[in-house]
Each structure stands twice: as structure tokens, then as C-alpha cells.
Amino acid sequence: MGKVAFLFPGQGAQTVGMGKDLFESDAAAKQVFQQAADILGYNLSDVCFNGPAEKLNSTEFSQPALFVCSVAALAKLRSESPELVDSVSGTAGLSLGEYTSLYFAGAMSFEEALRVVQVRGQAMQAAANAVPSGMVSVLGLEIERVRALCDESRLPGEILQLANLLCPGNIVVSGSAASCQAITKNAEEAGAMKVIPLAVAGAFHTEIMQPAVQQLSAVLESIEIQTPALDVYSNVDAGVHRDPEEIKTLLGKQVVSPVLWEATIRNMLSEGYDSFYEVGPGRVLKGLMKRIDRKIACENIN
Questions:
Q1: Any idea what the Cα angle at residue 16 is, between residues 127 and 116, rounded to 5°?
Q2: Ranges of the chain whose pLDDT falls below 70
Q3: I need a surface site. Which of 88, 117, 189, 232 has the fewest CB within 10 A?
Q4: pLDDT tens per residue across span 271-292
């Protein structure tokens, strides 16, 4: 008998209008948005439903918005398909989505998780504002070739490194703005299928985000994390961790470490997971699953 897993999206899955159908069709989901407004001190549903896109795409707003929309989807799912929710043995989330995984697994309350996510988004936005930087998606090249291109393209004294190892042939690099421009040109010349500069605030999952770690660690120390009731896979090492203090440490490391998404999914597959559900906005994770193992079904629920 195989095992069921829930996957939760991260930054980049946001779109103006997300969550509106949930808000209008389900009382439990609506309550999630209302509670979020009280915690955050502003009307998050208005940002999600009406934008503008520039505001929603800002890290400060997109991170709480994606977390809340995913939790709202969970709330509706709990009322409509409780047997599915109860069947889940493990969970993973892409970067920000790891907080949704921890909330779902009972490691954090909704209020505490949202407060941490709010600080995380604000701190990462501030770190990005301090250093001109960005991220570039490189499609169609092997990981070692992309790593070599980072070495070739990195300007003296600057940062450029692998940031998101998503699936075969889909690797995101992250670093200083000029080095990102250099690898965009060099990867195209090296035969990449596509090279796409991403519309993000800065170089996430690099040392450029180190100032954000200090603020994030401080707020994590102020809350109590419980032992997760489910397997929660970490972005940092693709493994399962149950010790609350270890989880806090890894959440700090996650901001400056590469996201090992492909390794996470392969570990889950090797440990008997064969039924996956992407819960929340977008269909990014479903698409990545097809590239990792086409035989494995991943259903989107948003």
C-alpha cells in the first residue's frame, strides 16, 4: 500500500485573483482570510483578489498571501474530503511552502506560522533591497554544466550559485545582478533550451539573504514548535526532521541554502510515497513531478 503526500507551493505561484473562489464558496476558507487580516494588520484578501500585481509580487506580500491561500485550500479540503486529509503520511513545501507543511503537520499554529512568514517576507525583501541581485532559471542543461557556468560567469567579489534544484533540466541560479546578466548570456551560448530571468526581488537562497536569517531566527526563537505529527521534508537536506530545535535551525539555513526539491521528491518516492496532491495556488509542483517521474500522479487542489 503506497503513501499519500501533500505538497505546498512557494513564491512564484502567486497570481492576482488567487483565493477568491475559496473565500466566496467556503465558510472555513473565508474565516482563514479574516483571521489572517487580524494577525497581519491589513486586508490580505484585497491584495490576493485585486492586486495590483506589483504589490502581490513583492516578497513582503507574496509570502503571507501564498501561505494563507494554501491554508484556506486546506480548510475547504478538511470539510469536503476529510478522509483524504486523514490519509496523508508526509508533506513537503517549496521554500516558503515548507511553513505550510509544518503548519499542516501540527508543528506550528496558524497564527505563529503566519507571524513568522510575515517577518520572513519583510526581512527577505529588505535584504534584496540592500543588494542589486536576482535569479535566473536555466532550462535544458545538466547540473554540473550549470555549476560550471556559475563559476565562469561570477564576477570578482560577487555571488552566483545554484539556488533551486527543481527537476532534471530545470535549475535556478541566484546572485548579484551583474553576474546574473552574465550567466544569462553564457547559458544561452552554451545551448540552454531557455534562460529566463525571474521576476523576484533578489537573490534568494544565497548569502545575500544572510541579514534576513538574523531576523527570522529571532522570531523563530520566540515561538514554540511542536514535534510534527507527519513526515515533513526539509528543503535544506531533503530529509525528515522531528526535533523542534533542529527544525528552527534548518528554517534559518533554508533562506541561504539551495532548495533540494528534486532530491526531496526522489527521497519520498524511495520511501513509498506514490500519491501526491499539490494544495494551493498554481500548478508548478505538478509540472515538476512530471519531469521527475512521469509515472507518478500529482493532483492539484486549489
A1: 40
A2: none
A3: 189
A4: 999 999 999 999 999 999 999 9
